Structure formats: C-alpha cells, structure tokens
Amino acid sequence: MASATFLSTLSLANKNYLLLTPTHACAKGYTNNFRVSNLPSIVVRKEGSVRSQGFVAMQEKGGSTLSDDSRTKTPHVLTVAGSDSGAGAGIQADLKACAARGVYCSTVITALTAQNTVGVQGASNVPEDFVAQQLKSVLSDMQVDVVKTGMLPSVGIVKTLCRTLREYPVHALVVDPVMVSTSGDVLAGPSILSTFREELLPMADIITPNLKEASALLNGMQLETVDDMRSAARLLHNMGPKNVLVKGGDLPDSSDAVDILYNGHNFYELRSPRIRTRNTHGTGCSLASSIAAEVAKGYPMLSAVKVAKRFVETALDYSKEIVIGNGPQGPFDHLLRLKSHSQDCHRQQPFDPSDLFLYAVTDSRMNKRWGRSIVDAVKAAIDGGATIIQLREKDAETKDFLESAKACLRICRLHGVPLLINDRVDVAIACDADGVHVGQSDMPACVARTLLGPEKIIGVSCKTPEQAEQAWVDGADYIGCGGVYPTNTKENNITVGLNGLKTVCMASKLPVVAIGGIGVSNARAVMEIRTPNLKGVAVVSALFDRECVQTETRKLHEVLLGSNIGST
Ligand SMILES: Cc1ncc(COP(=O)(O)OP(=O)(O)O)c(N)n1
Ligand SMILES: Cc1ncsc1CCOP(=O)(O)O
Ligand SMILES: [Mg+2]
C-alpha cells in the first residue's frame, strides 16, 4: 500500500515519480481538497484518516521535479453491489450512471439476481472470499477514488468490505443501504442491520436510505412526514456517517419529491416536482452512483448530491414513455438516447454520399425577399428533388431558428432527406438534426464530432488538399469545395474554379460536393470534371433567389440526371 507518510519513488509508465506526503504537497500549493482544477488530481489526505493516503505524482526530469499535468487522473468509482439481470438496478445501473456522469466505474459483484420488471425471481450470493478477491484486485491496482456500495447480502460480505477498506483506504465511501428492492423483495435481511450500524455506517461519507431503509436502521421508527425525515437523519448521523440523505420518494401525500440531507450541522431540504412515471427501477442505485461520481470528480458533498439528484430527475423525465418489460416497474435510460431511437419511426439513416447529389442550402434573406417561410422553402426544394437540405440562416434569432429547424426536420424525416444545420452545432444538437456543415473559421470538425457523436453527418468547407486531409482526420463525412464560380451569396469568398475543385477532389479521401455560383447553366460542366468522389452540387441562389423553388429545383435535378454522374 502506498503510504503518504514517507517519501518514495514509484514507477508509472516507465517514468519515475516522487510520492509526496500531504505536508510536501501543501507546501507546494496543493490543497487538502480532493481535486483542484488545473492541478494533478491525485488525492492529498490528512494522515491518520481511514481514507486514501494519496499522493501527488511528480515527474522527475533531468534532476528537477516537474508536476506532470499530462497524467491528470481519471475519476474512478468502484461499485460493490449485486447484479440485476434486467439491468435496471444494481451493478448495471451503477455502470450506466457513472458512464453518463463521465467517470470510470469498476465493479465488485456481491450477488447475482434473476430479476426483471416484475420482481426478483432468484438470488445467489457470491462467496465472501471471492468478494474479497475482487476487492483486492481492483483496490490494489486501479486508484479508486470513491467506493459506492449497494446490495451487501451477508454479514460476512459487509465485514469483508469494511476490512478491505481499512487495508486499502479510498477518498470517500458512499453507502446505499439496500435492503428491499423497489418491487418489495428482500435483498439484505435484518441480521445485517447491526453490522451496518456498527461497522459500515461509521466509515461512510454519506448514506442514502429511503424511508423503509431509514426506518429499518432505526428499529422500525415511523417515518411519515418531512419532520420525521429530519429526525431520522439526525439519529442516523449519530451512527457515524458524515452525511445522511434520507430520500422521501415514498412519502405519502406529497406532490414533490423531498429529500433531506444532514451533515451534522445543517439540514438541506432538496425539493423537486415528482415525476410521474412507471420507469423508476434502479433510481436509488443510480442516485448513489451519481453522488459517488460527483464526489470522485472533486465536488463537495452538497453540490454532488444536488447534481446527482438533478441528473436522475432529468433521466426519469426523459424516460417517462419508454416501454421495457411487462411488469409494474421499468428501467430508465441513463444516457438519454433510447427514446428518439425506439419511438421515432422516421429515424435518421446512415450517411450516404449519393445524398449530396442535389444539395439545397437555404438563405433567410432570399426567402424573406420572396415572402416565403423557411419551412415552405424546404418543402418546395424536397418536392423538386433536393436530396439533402442545409439550413443556412445567418440572421435568425436562435429561438426562431430552433423552432424552424424542428419544423423542417419533421418534413425532412417524412421524406427521408437528411437535414444539416450550417455553423450552429448547438442548434443541431437541440433539434436533433442529422448533422452540421462547418467552415474553416467555424467550430473545428473534431470538436463538432465529439459533441454530436459518431452517427451525425459532418461536412467541412475546403479549398485546398491540406484542408481536405484535415477534414478526413477530424472525422468529417464529406467536404464542400468552392466557390467554384463567383457568387454574391457569400461575401469575400475566394473562387477556386473547376481546376481548384478537381485538385481538391483528387486529394480528398471524402466525398465532395461542389458549391458557389452553380445553377442550371453550369451544373453539367461541374459534374463533367469526372472525379469519382464528386457526388453533386450545393446550391443557394439558383434555387432560393427565384420565384418558384420547386420548379428551379426540378430543372436542376433534370440537368444533374442528364449529366449522369455522381448519382450512384
Ligand atoms: C455544402 C457547403 N459547402 C460549403 C459551405 C460554406 O461553409 P462556410 O465556409 O462555413 O461558410 P458559411 O456557409 O457558413 O457562410 C456551406 N455552407 N455548405
Ligand atoms: C456558402 C458558400 N460557400 C462557398 S460559396 C457559397 C455560396 C453559394 O451560394 P450560391 O449557390 O448562391 O452561389
Ligand atoms: Mg460557416
């Protein structure tokens, strides 16, 4: 075990590190807080604590000692809990909650349960010595910040955990004293209560009982009001945990969800509107894991609890209509992804380069000039044969842009035409558009990719082979090359001509759409440069600065079909 009480060297990734005692670290300007922004986030703790005797890792370089910011530690939660085969609660919920909250999560499994949305059909405890082995494997190697406990089904397992935590201290311990599943099945019997009270609770930084669990820990005390919850929190605090969160989800006659947090000095009443949903299985596990995640990131307990509670409420609200299983209590979606995928019958198709064939790019000024809404413009372009739409609304207020984008998206989805947003990655995310188009001075494509995820379509404007190469490296799906011809639509835009287009097409590993001054009269000439990855033309004024968008789109469509290039 690394000790903070002496100075030593440690080899990490073939580099030598100095282990600093808390005294050294504080003298260097590190605080006793767990994580300080911009500083290496390895724990510095007071000596004598049962917590982590952590250290600040300092890289030795050429005799001088430099702080190694490049090795910022990943926040790490270890969950010690039971497996839920239905994956709504237990280990599986903990993993999802930690993933959603952006921390690493390792697992020690204490029991296997056969479980679904109806209830718990069976449970089998993992032997104590194998729980001990799992704990040792993770804690001896993986720099765990916070241990979170869930189902601890035997006195022996609780004792094993407490013993191992004394041997391998961590920064914080979050105890969810799971005793009864949400379906009412008993997961830890009364014999465990005294071991909880005497051994586990005194080690905890926070415990998170619901009303039934708080009552069981307090020998059956009646808990029916918020005042009762406060009394329970105080009594539980006397058992040794630093903080107590009594969850009032089961409180009768309350339209709000009220939880009481008590830290021995102050009571905090955390109140939020109750979310009416069937899908609450695993709420307790997820809340405790989320608290653990925020503590692992370095938040103080009150902030951690508030953020965790808000996260779970958001996920519950998002998951209200999800249908999984036939029982009374369904799981919810921690990653806020399942609803749009499962319920949207017009979901996005994977990107197909042939969609670039007739690429219609809207322009708010032109539509205004011709007295049509952006939605009408998009409808007309699709009716005329546009194969992809980009909303390029440079003057729109964000709120109006978002509303229009949502309306356009409904139309596009109905017709199976992808809808991209120009420049505004935020708007694309907010309306769940199919992707974005960004230029060289917009948000870098690699950042947009991180924000949008792997499935969305990203296009990048490129005038040179180098830019085309970078777009590919950044994870773009296509490039827009131009202006091929002079244009009034974009000010100060350099024209690359057909030669520039050809050069970029030949260098590009990505499909290309040509843009700039293109219309019925010259589209054929553009396509005739005959490079296989030129898939189509992107057009603004030749479609939208005209009286009838549908007619102009149809004419261009015919020209492109006539050129017989790029459509496959
Ligand atoms: C398909 C397509 N290609 C290029 C552009 C131009 O994007 P950008 O360079 O960011 O300029 P603005 O359109 O934002 O003025 C485009 N929009 N679409
Ligand atoms: C946005 C853009 N990027 C390069 S040229 C251009 C304008 C294209 O508009 P138009 O089709 O009216 O020439
Ligand atoms: Mg742009």
Automatic annotation (TrEMBL):
The keyword ATP-binding applies. Residues 84-328 form the Pyridoxamine kinase/Phosphomethylpyrimidine kinase domain. One of its GO terms (molecular function) is metal ion binding. The gene is LOC107894239. It catalyses: 2-(2-carboxy-4-methylthiazol-5-yl)ethyl phosphate + 4-amino-2-methyl-5-(diphosphooxymethyl)pyrimidine + 2 H(+) = thiamine phosphate + CO2 + diphosphate; 4-amino-5-hydroxymethyl-2-methylpyrimidine + ATP = 4-amino-2-methyl-5-(phosphooxymethyl)pyrimidine + ADP + H(+); 2-[(2R,5Z)-2-carboxy-4-methylthiazol-5(2H)-ylidene]ethyl phosphate + 4-amino-2-methyl-5-(diphosphooxymethyl)pyrimidine + 2 H(+) = thiamine phosphate + CO2 + diphosphate; 4-methyl-5-(2-phosphooxyethyl)-thiazole + 4-amino-2-methyl-5-(diphosphooxymethyl)pyrimidine + H(+) = thiamine phosphate + diphosphate. CDD domains: HMPP_kinase, TMP_TenI. One of its GO terms (cellular component) is chloroplast. This is Thiamine biosynthetic bifunctional enzyme TH1, chloroplastic. Pathway: Cofactor biosynthesis; thiamine diphosphate biosynthesis; 4-amino-2-methyl-5-diphosphomethylpyrimidine from 5-amino-1-(5-phospho-D-ribosyl)imidazole: step 2/3; Cofactor biosynthesis; thiamine diphosphate biosynthesis; thiamine phosphate from 4-amino-2-methyl-5-diphosphomethylpyrimidine and 4-methyl-5-(2-phosphoethyl)-thiazole: step 1/1. Keywords: ATP-binding, Chloroplast, Kinase, Magnesium, Metal-binding, Multifunctional enzyme, Nucleotide-binding, Plastid, Thiamine biosynthesis, Transferase, Transit peptide.
